[in-house]
Amino acid sequence: xxxxxxxxxxxxxxxxxxxxxxxxxxxxxxxxxxxxxxxxxxxxxxxxxxxxxxxxxxxxxxxxxxxxxxxxxxxxxxxxxxxxxxxxxxxxxxxxxxxxxxxxxxxxxxxxxxxxxxxxxxxxxxxxxxxxxxxxxxxxxxxxxxxxxxxxxxxxxxxxxxxxxxxxxxxxxxxxxxxxxxxxxxxxxxxxxxxxxxxxxxxxxxxxxxxxxxxxxxxxxxxxxxxxxxxxxxxxxxxxxxxxxxxxxxxxxxxxxxxxxxxxxxxxxxxxxxxxxxxxxxxxxxxxxxxxxxxxxxxxxxxxxxxxxxxxxxxxxxxxxxxxxxxxxxxxxxxxxxxxxxxxxxxxxxxxxxxxxxxxxxxxxxxxxxxxxxxxxxxxxxxxxxxxxxxxxxxxxxxxxxxxx
Length: 405
Ligand SMILES: Cc1cc2nc3c(=O)[nH]c(=O)nc-3n(C[C@H](O)[C@H](O)[C@H](O)COP(=O)(O)OP(=O)(O)OC[C@H]3O[C@@H](n4cnc5c(N)ncnc54)[C@H](O)[C@@H]3O)c2cc1C
Prior knowledge:
Helix 4 packs across helix 13 and helix 10 packs across helix 12. The strands form six sheets. This protein has a six-stranded antiparallel barrel. The protein has a five-stranded parallel sheet with strand order 7-3-2-11-22, with helices on one face. It has 405 residues and is of the alpha+beta class. The chain starts with a strand and ends with a helix. A hairpin with a 4-residue loop joins strand 5 (98-100) and strand 6. The longest helix has 20 residues, at 385-404. It has helices at 13-25, 42-50, 61-64, 72-81, 84-93, 113-126, 169-177, 235-243, 245-250, 266-279, 295-303, 318-329, 385-404, and strands at residues 2-3, 6-9, 31-34, 55-56, 98-100, 105-108, 130-132, 137-143, 146-151, 155-158, 160-163, 182-188, 190-194, 206-214, 220-227, 231-233, 254-260, 331-340, 346-351, 356-357, 362-363, 369-371. It is elongated and about 85 Å long. Flavin-adenine dinucleotide (FAD) is lined by residues 9-15, 34-37, 40, 42-43, 46-48, 52-53, 136-137, 164-166, 168, 170-171, 343-346, 373-375, 384-387, 390.
């Protein structure tokens, strides 16, 4: 039996961040990470397209929490203790400078996730964290005050453990055995599959500011929309996939969306179109793109409105004007399935949040058992918020663990 003061299960983002902070805060403690793979930090490596979107330039806790479909209420207190600004400072103090991109996402200036990995590995070594690879945890049991952890080839014991295994169903089963309940995992952050003449052959087209509703629900979002080979993506869609993760899973990813491409009412759009009929009667509708829409999208919407490439504004009848106004402001598309968003995808689901004390990230049911990261039922929209949840939980748990062993 190998004895440690603190055992971290999972050598990912939250696990490393916690281990380093515990060892730094209390150098007396023997801290070990048990990682199932032959290397840790695999998701950090591929994150943000290999650049690692570490956090987001949002510095108000009350605003930051709005990016978490699950965890919004629970993270408010923790973000007052450790949030984005603290993350930036933490990395800067260890020689990793971060930069802000126009949309608020923050990356290492090196543009390489390896910078984050190198930082973690060298900090772990500097503070004497024992990182043990090829140690998949098979069981966790309480024997008296101590935990006994069985991996495939070793037994470990410690008085405090932190579970940072991300979205791992086997660990969730083990945690259920310890008395916790787990919300059923479903994917979040995905793109919508849509086959429709109006978006066919125009991949790469971006409408900068649309409103999207899922018909028959209260789900809606706004922001940029990207047309892809398979359907639609970009923040307006990804936000819906995150906030609607449970609802859309229930519908087996088959539903209708309504898009307002120009963020105007149908009446206002119709007035503009009627004016255009008066002011440019001889021009073809097809060739006179309006409302700052991308030309190729305008072409598609025009052709979907009962007219041809040669129809002139003067020729438009009431039905055609109304059809175009409708395509611009309330175009309905049939979503049939989802695809992975390669930059970042997460799982909604995990340890139920009411079972965790968010002042310390300790279990309310099992003393000295802590959680951080995606193992909890917390997830966010894309933009660096998922890592911020990992850093915040790990830091707060680490502070409590370090002071009380
Ligand atoms: C392709 C991709 C890109 C992403 N990009 C970003 C991004 O740029 N910004 C962002 O904020 N978020 C991003 N995310 C989400 C982010 O990676 C996760 O939210 C984050 O990694 C969660 O951290 P974690 O420590 O909880 O889990 P993980 O990073 O998944 O780490 C869990 C670790 O536990 C180990 N483990 C699991 N089970 C066991 C076991 N039984 N025994 C021992 N070890 C075990 C795993 O091997 C793993 O190393 C991305 C996700 C993906 C998939």
